[in-house]
Design brief:
Layout (H helix, E strand, L loop, with lengths): L2 H11 L2 H20 L5 H27 L6 H19 L5 H26 L3 H19 L5 E2 L2 H8 L1 E7 L4 E6 L1 H18 L1 H11 L1 H6 L4 H27 L1 E2 L7 H11 L11 H17 L8 H50 L1
Antiparallel strand pairs: 1-4, 2-3
Helix pairs in contact: 2-13, 3-8, 3-9, 3-11, 3-12, 3-13, 4-5, 4-6, 4-11, 5-6, 5-11, 7-11, 8-9, 9-11, 12-13, 12-14
């Protein structure tokens, strides 16, 4: 094993993703030992099903953090976009492809996301404050202007929601579980985002802006355009998540996403995305979401009451934030130390040159 491979191995073993993976394994083993139900086929399928929408939402939070800052408006964008898309089908009597329903929602999400992006990019306002404000406005439009309430889905959406990629049954318990078609959408979105962030100049710009805005500008990146684009795309992704959840549930409920932003942000931070921006991975985001999903879905298997889930999620938020802050602090100290050494070396060279002269 060469030194480069050894360094990569050591780096991976101390990474946040590795610690989260260890936590997932330990938690899974604990639940299995206590209940004997964790590794059953229907529980594993249920976990995958439960991960779909939070994982898509996590993309919104992830893109916000690595480029600009926290985005807390994506649940309301999802709720408003999916409502308008559902109403479009109801009012027009549309019976065509479900893709059109998604496109309607995406169009709405792009508009709502661009509002966030415009304000943040144009006026350089903190993303947290802007998205808090716009989420309140979107909520007012949804519940006040539209008077949205629970409604059953039209056939076009309900039929898609009933389709499944995989169906399993636990013969002993007599419980069946299915993996919906929306799982393909979730996988497709992650592939697209991964490709854009890692193999395009726009993706490099997203990380550059989040890491150091001044350096990004000097490198030729349009900071305002990138921030506008990130929040606009985030709105479209949130809209997709909203429709996915609606068709999976077979009904629409405007308050279904209330508080979802905190759980999703906890998952993203826990996965290693730093609060200061510029650093984060999609695999860490997936692992963080999986851990949160296990906490929210599987602790009941060992008899832990539902209200304790909030306790564990709150603890995870604090731990994840602490890890992020510590990593950012260590990175700053390391960079400062390197700059200091570089300055000292420069002074030595200057002094030696002066003595020779």
């Amino acid at each position: 094993m060469n030194s480069l491979t050894t360094k990569k191995l050591k780096k991976s073993l101390v990474s946040t993703e590795f610690f989260v993976l260890v936590l997932i394994v330990l938690l899974a083993v604990f639940i299995e030992m206590q209940s004997g139900l964790f590794f059953t086929n229907n529980n594993l399928v249920d976990l995958l099903r439960s991960m779909i929408v939070p994982s898509i939402f996590a993309l919104c939070a992830y893109l916000g953090f690595i480029s600009t800052g926290p985005d807390v408006s994506f649940p309301l964008i999802a709720a408003l976009s999916s409502y308008i898309a559902t109403q479009f089908v109801v009012i027009t009597g549309f019976q065509g492809s479900i893709a059109i329903v998604f496109l309607v929602a995406i169009a709405v999400g792009l508009v709502l996301g661009s509002i966030n992006g415009f304000i943040i990019a144009k006026y350089n306002f903190p993303s947290l404050i802007v998205t808090l404000g716009t989420s309140t406005i979107f909520s007012g439009i949804l519940l006040g202007a539209f008077e949205a309430s629970r409604m059953e889905l039209p056939a076009t959406m309900a039929d898609f929601g009933r389709q499944s990629l995989l169906a399993v049954t636990n013969a002993k318990a007599g419980i069946g579980s299915s993996l919906p078609m929306t799982f393909l959408i979730f996988v497709g979105l992650y592939i697209i985002v991964y490709f854009v962030l890692n193999h395009t100049m726009a993706g490099r710009g997203v990380f550059a802006v989040g890491g150091d805005e001044t350096s990004a500008e000097r490198a030729g990146f349009n900071v305002k355009l990138i921030r506008f684009g990130v929040f606009t795309v985030s709105g479209a992704i949130a809209a997709i998540a909203g429709v996915c959840y609606t068709v999976e549930s077979l009904y629409y409920l405007p308050t279904e996403f209330a508080g979802e932003e905190m759980i999703v942000i906890a998952a993203v931070i826990l996965g290693g995305t730093r609060l200061m921006g510029g650093v984060g991975t999609l695999k860490g985001t997936i692992l963080g979401t999986l851990l949160i999903t296990i906490v929210t879905n599987s602790l009941i298997l060992v008899g832990i009451p539902v209200y304790w889930q909030k306790f564990f999620i709150g603890a995870i938020i604090i731990i994840g934030t602490a890890i992020s802050v510590i990593q950012s602090h260590n990175l700053f100290k390391s960079k400062k130390s390197k700059d200091s050494k570089g300055l000292q070396n420069s002074e030595v060279v200057i002094n030696e040159t002066a003595q020779k002269q």
